[in-house]
Design a protein that fits this description.
heterodimer, A: 799 residues, alpha/beta, seven-stranded mixed β-sheet, six-stranded mixed β-sheet, 29% helix, B: alpha/beta, five-stranded mixed β-sheet, four-stranded parallel β-sheet, 19 helices, globular
Chain lengths: 799, 434
């Protein structure tokens, strides 16, 4: 909506008239008419600091030059940005900035993309009048992602403001006065925010640069290629910079409707995984227990023959496919088409899901329920079962901005992690008690319903009801939950009674796309086994597309058992992962950077991209592999020449908008939803301890697992068992103790830590991590006991 | 009484020659809290109080000289949270008046702040005391406790429906925290760095709420104004320069100290009050308003009167009223080196010209003083100072630049001598007399 004309402010900049909305600054007004005012500290997404003084301009009738970034446009104002008066001020600031700047551009990573370097060309002098010794500032260890050369810092405080305002925590600050002022962390701390890499982009000089990229290339040697992030469901737009067929780094591509100008660290630094030595580069067949490299013809011929044989011998339903939701729309479409062509409906991409009882009542594809941009406009939000800042760093950022504008965010969660934003209400309950907790909110929100509810539940209900734009989101944990359908149904009821919008936080890049492609067992009426059922009832043959099932499944133990028992496992993968233990054929397929394809993000936006580098070695795009396999299996309709043809066949633009629907037609069969029944359920579950198994941020997909720098961050530390103090005392643990964890007969030993944000009788142990891969279901019962101490043995010997 | 009040020589420091003058009992004996009682008893309207202050011509005593009544009238009238802040972060080199007000007459400040709070309808005030005078802070704490006990502060003051909570707080000695917005940041518990203005504290002050900030001495003038009338106060000084002013006289005088005199008192008379020049030596130079203000040659000063307009006409500013006296033993290069070092060390480092420029200025003056000066250095100093002045977030940049400009303007020959001869123009014999 345009502001009424009479509200506009008319002013003149460099003789050009411009009309701007009230509260527009001079620098923004100048931008509107294409006049560039030099600046360093100003950034349109950050608060105004006005500290660099580079944007000083001449304003008629003002007694001194004014900073354009902080000066509001006023009616009749006459601004000169390039007059002698203004340029004199700008040049003097540039001189001041340069006197203590090392001018080590030839060895500076920022060289070639440095704002100071660029502006110095226009405003700097050829020779400095400053002949004293320059300031030297010690470098800081900010962690494995950000490299520092603090002597280059010009104190613009963009990084500090980013931390406070966008990342939600002040991990950098400026300590010291005057010339001794320097940017640093709190004593011995590093920068750990999930969005920290953006500080590298924000830094206008070479003070903060990318540690993984350091000294590897010059910006002018790199080609800029557009791409889409393959990680969480957000669908950030990327610039992938490549040289000689190799991805050198990833930068954000601005898209106000999605990632704005930001990227999460996962999206920015995962590219290291693309160049991992673990990449699979040639097709391999296991021959007499030994892996043997072969050519594609041999490999695909072998796969086709084997699948045909299994179909003939055991029936098509003995062939199942487990696809990663990080694969492209085209790949998932061809996989399901191939499988259904063979005659099996057993395909699924919901590898971490454990409750499929809602499948029959799904009305469509589960999505965010709104546009991503609308997240910042919400004023009441309830998030159910989510590790939001880790699972969806940029959704967390959007909600953080909403909180700043007064939004109230509440959660129902099985732990109490810091989201780095003000929280309105929290219900922290064990996974088995989450349904009861949610029921209480439903009861509170519905006057006609009977039942008891806690004070917090009532507050959340009131909060949602009183909002202008309320939303309820089901996070990854709610989707993986053993009673996911019930949580879904309760959330839907709550949305109805409160007028809130119901949304799902898309776990993976193509969580929406995979439904659309039909990578589910219920596509177009044909029923097959879901992801859990095809592992519980082991199949003879499995096709794994991009999935490292030993890490990606809800129950890794069960998954491994099924794989190891299978007669034939084909792993289409970019990496040599544990499939080398259980697979019979390994086919190197391209990661997102080496293929064209489409991801449909959580807001239902289909984003098609091209490959940015040629496939590594003998790697081939999976859509081509599946196309040829379709031909070899004698299936019809596998004659594509491009991924675009696959895409066209899917008629996405027609199907997608109609498909997005979060509604369940009826209550899931397994649960007659009555609060009392939920409580009974909860009590029943109380017999043992329940595991809370969330996926660590840097274990969520195969690429990020191999991003070496991310694996050095605090978020990637070795998993520990977290328990609350009552349980810690009950187990008679002491500092330094380790614990034995047991699920379904398997046992691992981990360090233990106390987290009093955890509810009673829960043990939080990460899933999706190689060190916990022996364990069972992420939210199943678990046993814990103190592991033998070193001293125990010694005592034994003494006796 | 009325004869005495018609034209007193002193308002704030009057009657402080007794014992334990800082106690409430002594203040009471001197007629203390009469103004506050009068306002509450007469149910004077807040606007009437502000009008009285406007009539008095009282100008801010912290340095800028902004009309106090006008500043008070900027405070929005709405009912929400608003704050009153006293800037007792007296850090300007040469200035030591506020500490003596608080040390010897703390209740006059408390009464002044209570009246100001009444006039602007403010319920909460803070007195921000400089961080290096702990004894004074402690004394203010005792005084506030006394005042609260006696019903001059707190809820329903003197049985009226006027309530005002006043708290002391202290910094840690950073000069920049005397800048009012840096003071607010510090008061909020953050690093003391000036804010960009606008918005001004009157609309966006402490915790983002409308805030009025005045200097200690300014508040201390208020009780007298209310009790005796704005016109009387104005009549003490000169038109546009009403009332008395405390001058902190330091340097080469016989009796350095605080002298409260009516504005417009001739400088020569003030110098006499301070016992004249130490050892009868000639007056070489004087900084009349604290170290941030331009220096003036002695002969110019001897013709000037001590009020805002007269000093401005002479080419400097009255500032905080710190009168730094220098006799002929002073090397002006060395004096400037010391001042530049101060600004170099105290710059907050937030904005570029000040952070980088103050160090540059100091280094160049330093090398001139130490016989390393170059011919181009004086022009360089003037250029760098000019590039700082008017281009920074707060007035600190100007404060660092003005001494450099004025020292070179008035004593260029001395600087030139240092550069040409690598030694001081002031002879060793003269220096030895210091």
């Amino acid at each position: 909506m345009n502001a009424p004309v009479q509200n506009l402010i008319a002013l003149e900049i460099d003789g050009k008239p411009v009309e701007v909305a009230p509260n527009t600054t001079v620098i923004e007004a100048a931008n509107q008419i294409g006049i560039f005012i030099p600046h360093f500290c100003y950034h349109r997404k950050l608060s105004i600091a006005a500290n660099c003084r580079m944007c000083l301009v001449q304003v008629e009738k003002a007694p001194k030059p004014l900073p354009a970034c902080a000066t509001p446009a006023t009616p009749g104002m006459k601004v000169h940005t390039h007059s002698d008066y203004a340029v004199d001020a700008q040049k003097s600031v540039m001189e001041f900035l340069l006197i203590n700047h090392p001018l080590d551009c030839p060895i500076c990573d920022q060289g070639g993309e440095c704002l100071l370097q660029d502006l110095a060309v226009g405003y700097g002098a050829g020779k400095s009048r400053y002949e004293e010794d320059k300031r030297v500032v010690p470098n800081k260890n900010l962690g494995p992602l950000i490299s520092t050369d603090m002597t280059r810092c010009i104190h613009c405080t963009r990084c500090v403001r980013f931390g406070q305002e966008i990342a939600g925590r002040m991990e950098l600050g400026m300590a010291g006065r005057g010339e001794h002022a320097e940017i640093l962390t709190f004593v011995e701390k590093t920068v750990d925010a999930e969005l920290s890499g953006n500080m590298i982009d924000l830094c206008p000089v070479g003070a903060l640069t990318s540690k993984p990229f350091r000294y590897t290339a010059r910006p002018w040697e790199l080609s800029r290629r557009k791409s889409i992030s393959p990680h969480c469901g957000f669908g950030s737009n990327l610039i992938v910079q490549v040289r000689s067929g190799r991805v050198m780094r990833v930068l954000p591509r601005e898209n106000e409707e999605i990632n704005e100008c930001w990227l999460s660290d996962k999206e920015r630094f995962s590219y290291e995984g693309l160049n991992s030595p673990e990449r699979l580069t040639r097709p391999m067949i296991k021959d007499g227990g030994q892996w043997r490299e072969c050519d594609w013809q041999q490999a695909l011929g072998f796969v086709a023959d084997k699948l045909k044989a299994i179909r003939a011998q055991h029936g098509a339903e003995q062939i199942a496919a487990l696809a990663s939701p990080h694969q492209t729309l085209e790949e998932l479409h061809l996989l399901q088409k191939l499988l259904r062509g063979i005659g099996s409906g057993s395909i699924d991409h919901r590898l971490r899901q454990s409750d499929f009882s809602a499948d029959a009542s799904l009305q469509g594809v589960q999505w965010l329920g709104m546009k991503i941009a609308d997240l910042s406009r919400l004023d009441r939000v309830l998030v159910i079962g989510s590790n939001l800042p880790k699972d969806h760093p940029l959704i967390a950022h959007r909600l953080r901005q909403a909180v700043k504008k007064g939004a109230a965010i509440s959660v129902v969660n099985p732990f109490d992690d810091n989201w780095h934003m003000a929280m309105a209400h929290k219900v922290i309950s064990a996974p088995h008690a989450m349904m009861a907790a949610l029921s209480e909110i439903v009861v509170s929100s519905n006057k006609s319903a009977n039942g008891q509810s806690s004070e917090t539940a009532a507050k959340i209900a009131v909060s949602l009801k009183t909002g202008q734009h309320s939303a309820i989101f089901l996070g990854n944990l709610a989707q993986h939950h053993p009673h996911a359908a019930q949580l879904h149904w309760l959330a839907q009821q709550l949305a109805q009674t409160t007028g809130a919008t119901l949304g799902f936080l898309g776990e993976a890049a193509n969580s929406v796309g995979a439904y659309l492609a039909g990578a589910t067992p219920f596509h177009r009426g044909a029923r097959g086994l879901d992801a859990a059922a095809m592992l519980k009832n082991p199949r003879k043959a499995y096709l794994l597309l991009g999935s490292e099932i030993e890490l990606d499944a809800y129950n890794p133990k069960l998954a491994m058992a099924a794989m190891q028992a299978a007669e034939f496992v084909v792993a289409l993968s970019a990496y040599r992962h544990r499939a080398t233990d259980y697979a019979h054929v390994m086919l190197p397929v391209a990661p997102f950077s080496e293929t064209s394809g489409t991801f449909v993000n959580t807001e239902g936006r289909a984003q098609t991209f091209n490959g940015v580098v040629p496939p590594l070695g003998e790697t081939r795009p999976a859509w081509k592999v599946l196309r040829v396999l379709g031909n070899l299996l004698g299936l019809d309709g596998f004659d594509y020449n491009s991924s675009e043809q696959v895409y066209a066949e899917m008629n996405v633009s027609w199907n997608l908008p109609m498909s997005l629907n979060n509604k369940l037609a009826s209550a899931p069969a397994r649960h007659a939803v009555k609060p009392d029944a939920d409580r009974a359920d909860a009590v029943a579950a109380k017999a043992g301890l329940q595991r809370v198994g969330d996926v660590p941020i840097y274990q969520s997909d195969p690429v990020v697992r191999r991003a070496v720098s991310l694996q050095l961050t605090h978020d990637a530390v070795v998993p520990v068992a977290s328990i609350n103090s009552p349980l810690y005392r009950r187990l008679q643990l002491a500092p330094g103790d380790q614990v034995k964890l047991r699920q379904e007969g398997a046992e691992i030993v981990l360090a233990v830590t106390v987290d009093d944000g955890l509810p009673n009788d829960t043990v939080r142990v990460a899933t999706g991590h190689p060190m916990t891969g022996e364990l069972g279901g992420a939210f199943d019962t678990i046993e814990i006991e103190r592991a033998a101490r070193v001293g125990d043995d010694a005592a034994m010997i003494q006796r | 009484m009325s004869d005495q009040t018609a034209k007193p020589e002193q308002i704030i420091l009057a009657g402080l020659d007794g014992e334990r003058t800082w106690r409430l009992a002594d203040y009471d004996k001197r007629g203390g809290y009469a103004a506050l009682r009068k306002i509450l008893a007469d149910k004077m309207t807040p606007d009437a109080v502000i009008n009285e202050v406007k009539k008095s011509g009282l100008r801010g005593r912290g340095g800028a000289g902004f009309p106090t009544g006008l500043k008070w009238s900027f405070m929005p009238k709405h009912a929400g949270e608003r704050y009153l802040v006293c800037n007792s972060d007296e850090g300007e080199p040469g200035t030591f008046k506020d500490r003596d007000i608080m040390r010897y007459n703390p209740h006059i400040l408390i009464e002044g702040m209570a009246i100001a709070a009444y006039a602007m309808g403010i319920k909460v005030g803070y007195n921000y005391v400089h961080g290096e005078i702990w004894d004074v802070y402690q004394r203010m704490e005792d005084a506030i406790a006394e005042a609260r006990e006696a019903g001059f502060l707190g809820d329903n003051i003197l049985g009226s429906d006027f309530s005002f909570q006043l708290y002391n707080t202290h910094g840690y000695g950073a000069y920049i925290c005397g800048e009012e917005t840096a003071l607010l940041e510090s008061l909020e518990g953050k690093k003391g760095q000036p804010r960009f203005k606008p918005p001004f504290p009157a609309t966006f002050g402490l915790y983002g709420k409308p805030t009025t900030i005045n200097n200690t001495e300014t508040f201390a003038c208020v009780p007298w104004i209310i009790q005796h009338g704005g016109e009387h106060f104005l009549a003490i000084g000169r038109p546009n320069n009403g009332g008395t002013k405390i001058f902190s006289v330091s340097g080469h005088v016989t009796r350095p100290g605080n002298y409260e005199v009516p504005l417009g008192t001739p400088f020569a008379k003030l110098l006499d009050m301070a016992g004249g020049m130490r050892g009868g030596r000639p007056l070489k130079a004087c900084i009349p308003g604290g170290s941030s203000m331009p220096v003036l040659p002695g002969e110019v000063m001897l013709q000037a009167d001590m009020d805002y307009d007269s000093i401005a006409k002479a080419g400097s500013m009255l500032g905080s009223g710190a009168v730094i006296i220098m006799d002929d033993t002073v090397c002006m290069v060395r004096a400037l080196e010391r001042l530049s070092y101060f600004y170099y060390e105290e710059s907050c480092g937030q904005c570029t010209p000040c952070r980088e420029g103050t160090g540059w200025l100091y280094r160049v003056v330093h090398r001139i003083e130490h016989g390393q000066g170059r011919q181009a250095d004086l022009d360089l100093l003037l250029s760098v100072a000019g590039n700082i002045q008017g281009r920074t977030i707060c007035a600190f940049g100007d404060a660092a630049a003005l001494p450099v400009k004025s020292f070179i303007q008035h004593f260029r020959a001395e600087f030139q001598h240092h550069i040409d001869h690598r030694e001081c123009l002031v002879s060793h014999e003269v220096k030895a007399a210091a």
